[in-house]
Amino acid sequence: MGEVIDRLISIIIAAVILLVIALLHVAYLTYAERKIIARMQQRLGPNRVGPRGLLQPIADMLKLLTKEDLIPYGVDKPIFYIAPFISLVCAGTGVALIPLWEKFVLSNINVGILFILALSSLSAYGVILSGWASNSRYAFLGGLRASAQVISYEIAMSLALLSVVLMAGSLNLVDIVNAQINSPYKIYLIPQIIAFYVFIISAIAECNRVPFDLPEAETELVAGYFVEYSAMRFAIFYLAEYFGMVVMSALAVTCFLGGWVGPFKVPYVPFFWFLIKLYFLLFVYIWVRATLPRYRYDQLMGLGWKVLIPVGIINLFLTAFLKLIF
Amino acid sequence: MNWDLIIFYYLAIVMIFSSVFAIFSRHPVYTVLLVLVMIVHQAFLLLTLGAEFLTVVQIIVYAGAILVLFLFVVYLINLRKETRRNVFIRLVSLIAIVFLLFGAFLIKNLFILISLKPSFRAYLPFSIEEKSNVWWIANYLFRNYLLQFEIIGVILLVAILGAVFLIRKVKTVE
């Protein structure tokens, strides 16, 4: 009994540390996004709170915490309350499975990659339920779009990850990174370049980011599925979106870019290379947002079903065939 | 009391109650959500047996795909009127009797289970410690039951083709 409690406490402490680090990353990701997009659009961006606006995320958080929590008339209350939390939990739990370093992974399970896919498929519930419970036309349409989009792009994403699994011969994320280190190219980006592109495009669609942000298209749906939410509940949806970005980028780093391994070892900071790669991919997310216009809905569905899924299947067969030969 | 048992009772009780409420709930969206709770707990029950692959597959397939589609259908039909009807209430007494009989049977089995006081890992048919769960499933599925697996695949393909055939647009000759 005592042993179990000791283990439980150590796991909880590790989880809290990881959660705080992840939350800080998420908070400053919003700041980085605003700054980078401002730079790309010849603006200044936030620069009032603290030096160079560095305290802006904290000020935003305080503002959202102290605002009034409005519940519109006619919503389905229990579902309206839990929907943002479903989104946040499904998006955030994935962080626990990512190996930041060979010896620092909170939960090293044998089916890590599948578990992340399961969580991302569950996150559809938060969106659908919030859209339904809001009892508003905009939210309803946003929820419909989001669920169709998430379900379609999930297939392409799974196919891209399956070819990585096939190459590594394991579903365990630590084993996948180790298999990459032992492979001739050191990273799977080179042999699996097609899968990498398919994965990145579907990851952007999964997180409902520009250019696939149809569920929350401002010009058509105001804010989409979370249009009726305010204050903290709105902030939770926001957090969930950025958590989703972090988890998807970290998964891409683990599966395609070789995880914690770099050209040379950095002393005392074992996850230096992991973070560098992660920041680069997050920058790509923001870069894409500042560059590309939004897709039309039929174009979005056409891209998912007629391009990404066939390409993913062909890549999977090709990988299997080559693995059989060599 | 050992930890396995506490977890098992928690999962079992939540599963039974969520299933019962799913039957009695008149609101289709709540029914789908309660079934979701049931399926997630069922997945964790598989986890206590050391079957992590089945756990994840259960969540991906049932919770992530099938129930989302159910929710999608519920979403698209207007249920504001139907949820106010009292049709199901008449059936409650009948269902309650059936459920009580069934429950008694379950509780009897539960007592047998308590008397065994098992460590659940002892029930594993083979040690999954040496090879992973995924390996064993793949081994059985693709060596011993390959033909059956392929037949199921073909049946599903036929079902999909049938659905596509039914919804296709009929081109009229002008």
Automatic annotation (TrEMBL), chain A:
NCBIfam families in UniProt: PRK06076.1-2
Catalytic activity: a quinone + NADH + 5 H(+)(in) = a quinol + NAD(+) + 4 H(+)(out)
Source organism superkingdom: Bacteria
PANTHER family given in the database record: NADH DEHYDROGENASE SUBUNIT 1, NADH-UBIQUINONE OXIDOREDUCTASE CHAIN 1
Membrane topology of this protein: Multi-pass membrane protein
Family: Belongs to the complex I subunit 1 family.
Subcellular location: Cell membrane; Membrane
Designated name of the protein: NADH-quinone oxidoreductase subunit H
InterPro entries (alphabetical): NADH_UbQ_OxRdtase_su1/FPO (IPR001694), NADH_UbQ_OxRdtase_su1_CS (IPR018086)
EC supergroup of this enzyme: translocase
Keywords: Cell membrane, Membrane, NAD, Quinone, Translocase, Transmembrane, Transmembrane helix, Ubiquinone
A Pfam family recorded for this sequence: NADHdh
Function: NDH-1 shuttles electrons from NADH, via FMN and iron-sulfur (Fe-S) centers, to quinones in the respiratory chain. The immediate electron acceptor for the enzyme in this species is believed to be ubiquinone. Couples the redox reaction to proton translocation (for every two electrons transferred, four hydrogen ions are translocated across the cytoplasmic membrane), and thus conserves the redox energy in a proton gradient. This subunit may bind ubiquinone.
GO cellular component, one term: plasma membrane
Subunit structure: NDH-1 is composed of 14 different subunits. Subunits NuoA, H, J, K, L, M, N constitute the membrane sector of the complex.
Keyword Membrane attached: yes
TrEMBL record, chain B:
InterPro entries found in the cross-reference section: NADH_UbQ/plastoQ_OxRdtase_su6, Nuo/plastoQ_OxRdtase_6_NuoJ
Organism listed in the record: Thermodesulfobacterium geofontis
EC number: 7.1.1.-
Reactions mediated catalytically: a quinone + NADH + 5 H(+)(in) = a quinol + NAD(+) + 4 H(+)(out)
A GO-annotated cellular component: plasma membrane
The protein's name in its UniProt record: NADH-quinone oxidoreductase subunit J
Cellular localization per UniProt: Cell membrane
EC supergroup of this enzyme: translocase
Family stated for the protein in its record: Belongs to the complex I subunit 6 family.
Membrane spanning stretches: 6-24, 31-53, 59-79, 91-116, 145-167
Membrane topology: Multi-pass membrane protein
Keywords linked to the UniProt accession: Cell membrane, Membrane, NAD, Quinone, Transmembrane, Transmembrane helix, Ubiquinone
GO MF term set: NADH dehydrogenase (ubiquinone) activity; quinone binding
A UniProt-annotated Pfam family: Oxidored_q3
Role noted for this protein: NDH-1 shuttles electrons from NADH, via FMN and iron-sulfur (Fe-S) centers, to quinones in the respiratory chain. Couples the redox reaction to proton translocation (for every two electrons transferred, four hydrogen ions are translocated across the cytoplasmic membrane), and thus conserves the redox energy in a proton gradient.
Taxonomy, superkingdom: Bacteria
Ranges in a coiled coil: none
